[in-house]
Amino acid sequence: MNRVVCPGSFDPITFGHLDIITRASALFDEVVIAVMVNKTKKTLFTVEERMEMAKDVTAAYPNVTVDSWSGLLVDYCKANSINTIIKGLRAVTDFDYELQMSQMNLQLQNVETLFMSTSPSHSFLSSSLVKEIASYGGDVSSYIPAPVLTRLKTRLASVNSDSSSEK
Ligand code: PNS
After folding, report:
1. What are the pLDDT digits (tens) for 3-25?
2. N or C, which end of the chain is more exposed by having fewer CB within 10 Å?
3. Domains, the chain, ordered by start
4. How many angstroms is it from 162 CA to the middle of ligand 1?
5. What is the 3-state secondary structure (H, E, C) of 116-148?
């Protein structure tokens, strides 16, 4: 079986991620979304929440599954007998770091990385920008699926009320 892992923070999952995941699901027998835990990176959503959102918005794709991992991506690949990583490339600015990681992952455990160009309609999209725009009350409904938007609004409202009660 031809399996591929699509790793990321998915904090939260956007239409840009979904673009890559759905196109990869047409090319591979199984796409595993690996929600990565990075202890040094502060996320808005817990890993469980990020997984729930990813499961929710990919439920229509029978060959897409969701998992999480804390540690090296190549160790996840080896533990799950997956030899290929798929990554979306939005612009040349993504390329330097992605190339470096792909070469390191090849060197570490002989895991291949395939780059898929993001659809031009999503080339400017990132979870960080979505969170920033939404935190200032901007409309991000074109960038994230509806259930994710609902959760994002709820989370930002609770973050804002926590920070205002601290003043
Ligand atoms: O969505 P992100 O935050 O851009 O995803 C980056 C991610 C999580 C895919 C990348 O940082 C990663 O693979 N982290 C796992 C730890 C690891 O394997 N580091 C060595 C990379 S060569």
Report:
1. 999 999 999 999 999 999 999 99
2. C
3. 3-123 (3.40.50.620)
4. 30
5. EECCHHHCCCCHHHHHHHHHCCCCCCCCCCHHH
Neighbours of 28 (CB within 10 A): 19
pTM above 0.70, yes or no: yes
CA dist 89 and 107 (Å) reads 21
**Residue type for position 70:** S
Q: Ligand 1 center to residue 27 CA distance, Å?
A: 23
pLDDT tens, residue by residue, 108-164:
999 999 999 999 999 999 999 999 999 999 999 999 999 999 999 999 999 988 877
Whether 3 and 96 have beta carbons less than 8 Å apart is answered as no
Catalytic residues: 17, 41, 90, 127
**Token duo for residue 140:** 């991000």
Alpha carbons 22 and 30: distance in angstroms, whole number: 11
